[in-house]
Amino acid sequence: MNGYYTDYHYWWYTFANQSYTWVGAYPVYNFLNYSGRGTPKNRSSDLVVGDILQANWGHGEGISHSMIVSTKHNDGRVYLSYHTNDTLDRPLSDIVATSPGASFYAWHINDTFSSLKPQTVVGKK
User: Fold this and answer.
1) Which of 5, 21, 48, 124 lies deepest, with the highest CB count within 10 Å?
2) Looking at residue 103, which CATH number applies to its domain?
3) How confident is the model over 53-98, as pLDDT tens digits?
C-alpha cells in the first residue's frame, strides 16, 4: 500500500483499516518526528501523563515498543501502560532495571489543549 497508509505525516484508524503509524512502533516514532506532533525529550522526568516512551530492546529490531505515561508522581516517578500483557501503571524504573541494553526514546505529545494541566498524583504509592 502506498501513500496515505504509509505516509509518516498521517496517523489514523477506521474499523476497516489504519495507517502504518497507528500500528507500528517505528512508524509512530517517524510520525512524531516528521509531523511536528511530538517533541523529543532527553529525560523521562520531563514527561507528563499522555506522553509516549518508546523502546529499542537491543535485539536488532530497532524501535519495537511504545508505552503511554499513565501516572506521574510529584517526586518524578513515571508509570507506563501498554497493551502487551495488558499492563497498567508499571514503574519505568522496573522496565529499565529488567531491560539491560535497551534504548529509550521519550516524546512529549504536542496538543491543542494547552489550557489543561497534566495530572500529577500526590502521595500515591
Assistant:
1) 21
2) 3.90.1720
3) 999 998 888 898 999 999 999 999 999 999 878 899 999 999 999 9
What is the distance between the alpha carbons of residues 83 and 35, in angstroms, rounded to a whole number?
A: 24
What single letter denotes the amino acid at residue 75? D
pTM over 0.85: no
C-alpha–C-alpha distance, residues 100 and 28, integer Å = 23
Measured over the CA atoms of residue 33, residue 38, residue 39 and residue 43, the dihedral's sign is negative
